[in-house]
Amino acid sequence: MPYGCIASTKTRPGCREEVVSLLLSGADGLRSAGCDLYPVGRSDDDDETTIWVTEKWRTREHHDASLELPEAKDAIGRAMPMLTGAFTKQDMPVAGGLGL
Questions:
Q1: What angle do CA 17, 82, 57 make, to 5 degrees?
Q2: 25 Cβ contact partners less than 8 Å away, ≥ 6 residues apart
């Protein structure tokens, strides 16, 4: 079954663009890992620390396996010091929709 999730995280002040860049730097390899959708967004209000990521994967197993990729581990390790620890995630088993 296709798997999706929507997550938000907060960065330390002044770090958002670097974290966005890190998230996007590995996006090219995600398709071969089973990812079909990976938009990374910034909050559009006065909040300069929030990042949103929406993901759609072929299966949850593809998503879980992607977190074990060396490039994913490297990006996560580099981003962690720039994050506050505030994080939300909503799993979303995908039923269908436009663009899927």
A1: 70
A2: 75
Reference 72, options 85, 81, 63; nearest CA is 63
pLDDT tens digit sequence for 8-27:
999 999 999 999 999 998 88
| DSSP conformational letter for 59 | -
Contacts 24+ apart (CB under 8 A), 23-29: 23/51, 23/53, 23/75, 23/79, 25/75, 26/71, 26/72, 26/75, 29/69, 29/71
* Residue that the structure tokens 């759609």 belong to: 56
Residue 75 · residue 9 · CB < 8 Å: no
Task: Quote helix, strand, coil % in the chain, to nearest 5.
Answer: 35, 35, 30
Q: Which amino acid is at 59?
A: T
